[in-house]
């Protein structure tokens, strides 16, 4: 058996997925789905964003959900925070991890968070100060780390520029290189991770990959990242969601596809595929969903290990 | 840039794809599509099977197609042959390469070619004798080299048993390990190729991978094979086709998805993606087709390099 890096999935359906659904989902349903994801064996879950409900109405019940899972030790629940106000809400409500997002490409950062990159870097500094000394993990998502919906291929220099600032401000954070459009290919994913993972300035950071399956590269890119030594991979049950501000970037890589890809290998994680598919089916039944992924399209009887 | 093995695509839509279409395709249309695939830059094409038209009616015009491409030097055209009669027809009609298929699993061999593996191995011996001394290449496709639609995971010993015979009978042939069901995962693909590619008895054989995307593993598995050093990868324009005798095994990996995956890398091949997508669209317009792949589902304006 090939030695490799065990995969640790970050399930993003409740954040990246639910925000793509216009129909309001009842708080109780959200909690039930997160509970079911945890029961299926997922140990890291992005459960939402502490943003203004005016920006993303689906996130109106963040505090209630955070409080429900406040003392939970089965899984590490993370929330996106766009600013200090979000970080303070996360701290106050006992969230275990916050995720701060900005882009390597100026055009996408302007579109996604409405600010130039320099302002987002200042925002990261402010968030780091706000959580300084607190018992909360920090992850930084670097969007458009490969390709930008507006500018195409993002130069590696732009990625390195962003990473320099992250290394200075958050030297022990987990950093996710995000393929926001899904247009990265496995060679680029391997190459960029190999480059950054050997840089001295980033030697105390850990790494994650967030990809999309829009162009069919989702699993191949996740495997390329894993092969380069990346343990943490973001996926979404049922392939739900995408970036609403990146045109054409529908389709997160499906969690069940990744679990299937790694099954039986040293990289495989202890997720119950049958239970996971049940949650994905349940998510698919919510009004207004747009699902992705492959495994749910195959008759259940054809799936091994079920 | 990461050093890797340049990919050589074998386009199988005219064989593995067209045989999945019940509606007869006019010979002139088939030739036009093969011409367009060659014009798009594909240098190896499986154009059909010298089988009885009673078994696969779509293959009724094999001789006419073979004769059309008889003197063609732009691409290497290959035909499947189930037996000596097929090999003789291929030789007589100037085909450059024949492909002989049998399975590593007994149940699939019985279902696919109606004979036990031992009889198929004798058939390979007969075919080798029939082409002995002739200027024709031989490839052996080992079906169910990972997973069988009837028996599940195929033991590596069964694969090695088949390979021993291939090594003895056809010591310089190209051997394709075929993921007939699409249920292999990238770790298994890498592991099996790494094993067989270092075996002394097989050191004069060359290697190919034939996969399906049914479970979403198509590109990831192709990348895993390529990473293990496999140059030759089978794909089908538009993801057309599958094995009609392997229940649930629809969906060859799409050629355009693989070209997209390797673009800009050292493994990339000189295929014109825009021209290829036009051929795939044309195939999709044929009556009775069932297409697959990802790139054709994305609005064309969102595709880079077009």
What does this protein look like?
The structure is a homodimer of 306-residue chains. Chain A is of the alpha/beta class. Chain A has a single domain (8-302), classed as Aldolase class I (TIM Barrel), CATH 3.20.20. In chain A, 37% of the residues lie in helices and 15% in strands. Chain A contains 11 helices and 10 strands. The first copy, chain A, has helices at residues 13-17, 27-39, 62-68, 84-92, 106-113, 117-131, 156-169, 186-196, 218-227, 255-262, 273-284, and strands spanning 8-11, 44-49, 76-80, 97-103, 137-143, 147-148, 152-153, 174-178, 206-210, 232-235. In chain A, a hairpin with a 3-residue loop joins strand 6 (147-148) and strand 7 (152-153). The first copy, chain A, starts with 7 loop residues before the first strand and ends in a 22-residue tail after the last helix. The interface between A and B is large, with 46 and 46 residues.
């Amino acid at each position: 058996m090939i030695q490799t890096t065990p995969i640790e999935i970050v399930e993003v359906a409740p954040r990246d997925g639910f925000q793509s659904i216009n129909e309001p989902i009842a708080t109780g349903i959200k909690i039930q789905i997160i509970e079911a994801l945890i029961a299926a064996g997922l140990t890291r879950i992005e459960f939402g964003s502490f943003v203004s409900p005016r920006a993303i109405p689906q996130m109106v019940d963040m505090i209630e959900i955070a409080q429900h899972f406040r003392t939970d030790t089965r899984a590490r629940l993370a929330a996106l925070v766009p600013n200090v106000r979000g970080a303070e809400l996360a701290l106050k409500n006992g969230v275990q991890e916050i995720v701060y997002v900005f882009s390597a490409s100026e055009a996408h950062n302007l579109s996604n968070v409405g600010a130039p990159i320099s302002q987002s870097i200042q925002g990261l500094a402010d968030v780091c100060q706000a959580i300084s000394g607190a018992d909360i993990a920090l992850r930084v998502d670097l969007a458009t780390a490969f390709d930008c919906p507006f500018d195409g291929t993002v130069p590696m220099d732009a990625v390195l520029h962003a990473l320099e600032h992250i290394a200075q401000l958050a030297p022990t954070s987990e950093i996710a290189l995000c393929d926001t459009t899904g247009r990265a290919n496995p060679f680029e994913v391997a190459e960029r991770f190999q480059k950054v993972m050997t840089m001295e300035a980033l030697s105390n950071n850990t790494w994650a990959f967030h990809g999309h399956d829009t162009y069919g590269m989702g699993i191949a890119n996740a495997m390329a990242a894993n092969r380069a030594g990346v343990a943490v991979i973001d996926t979404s049950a049922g392939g739900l969601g995408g970036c609403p501000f990146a045109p054409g970037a529908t389709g997160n890589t499906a969690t069940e596809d990744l679990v299937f890809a790694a099954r039986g290998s040293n990289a495989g994680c202890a997720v119950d595929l049958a239970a996971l598919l049940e949650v994905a089916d349940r998510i698919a039944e919510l009004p207004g969903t747009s699902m992705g992924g492959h495994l749910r399209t195959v008759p259940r009887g054809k799936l091994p290990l079920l």
